[in-house]
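Lay summary. Proteins are chains of building blocks that fold into shapes, and those shapes determine what they do. In this project we predict the shape from the chain. Here is one chain we studied, written as its sequence of building blocks.
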Amino acid sequence: MARGGALPATIALIFSDAFTGTAAAGGFAGASVAAAMRFGVARGIFSNESGLGTGGIAAAAAQTSHPVRQALVSMTQTFIDTLIVVSATALVILVTGSWTSGQTGAPLTSLAFSRGLPGEWGGIVVTLGVVFFAYSTLIGWAYYGERNAETLFGRRSVAPYRLVFVLAVYVGAVTELELVWTFADIMNGLMALPNLVGLLLLSGLVARETKAYFAQPDWRDRG
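And here is the predicted shape, written in a compact code that computers can read:
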């Protein structure tokens, strides 16, 4: 079957396996479903940073006419990352049949794209994607940490923070991958908890500002 013809069948497979006895039996037999949800949520948060509060640090540095306008722009990163990039990757893995290979993570994605694209292009595309993702992640998190360190301890703390950050990058690169992921998940959870509390407390203010912004007749033309 051609790849294009396999796409509808793949989408049907996602829904059929999600709502059949196979999935339910797997959940009752063990913690497979719970583990899948845990890792899915953890990797999703790590990927799009939704709920962590880090995106607000970058948004606060943007030059915009209204905070609601910047919030609308910031929302696109979650949409593109989750609904487009992640969904497309999952479909490639399923359409090529790579999900039965036993591979996980980047090797699984690389295998899927290698099967789906001619020659060595699949592996090259995934490798470049991983490199750019890792590099942009390092830059982004370094910036977030600097801003927090400067806010809490003053400008003099930026240089020591950079040294600690570089050391942490080295330690993370040479440490066992499972330990690194576990540590990252714990730290993300510790960030998310106070941020989610703050979101709940400020939800009324956000709703009022949003309604006031869209109530303006020229909100579409505001730059």
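What the prediction tells us: The two ends are 49 Å apart (CA to CA).
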